[in-house]
Structure formats: structure tokens, C-alpha cells
Design brief:
Layout lengths: L6 E8 L6 H13 L4 H22 L7 E8 L3 E7 L25 H9 L2 E4 L5 E7 L9
Antiparallel strand pairs: 1-2, 2-3, 3-5, 4-5
């Protein structure tokens, strides 16, 4: 049975590649509870992992003494995630599109590309060390007659 009020959580986890596992498991379970489609669940899972890996690798520079704060809520029609690292931040618009030119051969920018492709909203704070992402529940498709 779906929850009528958003399920809201706030956690601070250590800045290691595996740190996201528990949060990911809980969040995806809550999406299933609220009847999000497999496509929605896949999209949120991918974006969450990409954002977290960016926070650990680029934001916190692989420093396990640092942490990443994640706030999220799962409602009937959307999921919202905010993630903040302890790094200096960056300018998202300064990251080249990895689909063109010399950027094709560089590893940078693919995580941002995926986050933007799979989430309905992706916004960074002014400092560039915090991202807000949202995905609205996929509307059921009508059967073709």
C-alpha cells in the first residue's frame, strides 16, 4: 500500500564508494512501496549512484574522513534527493558535453550527462557542492486499441 505522506530521510555517510549501498537499498524499496515503475526505479538508482560517486571522487577527493549528506523524500508522485559533499564545489556548466569533440575521449562529464538524462530536475547550489534531483512518477501508458 502506498504512503499518503512523503517518506523523508536524512543521512550522513562516509565518503567511500560503497557508502551508498544502504541508502540505495532503502530508497529503492520505498519507490517500490509507492508503486514507481521499474523504469523510474532504474533511473533513480543510476542517478543516485552517479551523484554519489561524483561527490566521493570529485567533491571529497576520495577522503574517507569526509562525509556526504543525503536528504530524500519519496511521495506518491515524485522522489526528491539532495546530496551535499564537503568539497570545494565546481561549475557544472564548465564541464564539456562528453558526446562531442575531444570530450569523447575523456572520462569527465558522463555522470552529469546520465543524471540529467534520467532525472526530471537536476540543480546545483551556487558553490557546486550540492545537487538537488527530482523524478516524477512515470504516468501509466494507456493500452492501445
Amino acid at each position: 500500500m502506498a504512503s499518503k505522506t512523503p517518506i523523508t530521510h536524512s543521512v550522513v555517510i562516509e565518503s567511500t564508494r560503497s557508502g551508498i549501498a544502504g541508502v540505495c537499498k532503502r530508497l529503492l524499496s520505498e519507490l517500490r512501496t509507492n508503486n514507481f515503475s521499474q523504469e523510474d526505479i532504474f533511473a533513480v538508482h543510476l542517478a543516485l549512484e552517479e551523484a554519489f560517486l561524483n561527490a566521493v571522487k570529485h567533491g571529497n577527493k576520495m577522503d574517507s574522513a569526509k562525509s556526504v549528506k543525503i536528504d530524500y523524500s519519496v511521495g506518491l508522485d515524485k522522489v526528491e534527493i539532495s546530496m551535499t559533499d564537503q568539497g570545494d564545489g565546481f561549475e557544472p556548466e564548465a564541464i564539456a558535453d562528453p558526446r562531442w569533440g575531444e570530450s569523447l575521449y575523456k572520462p569527465e562529464g558522463r555522470g552529469l550527462l546520465l543524471m540529467n538524462a534520467y532525472m526530471d530536475v537536476v540543480e546545483f547550489n551556487e558553490r557546486g557542492n550540492s545537487v538537488y534531483m527530482a523524478r516524477y512518477k512515470e504516468k501509466p501508458r494507456l493500452a492501445e486499441s
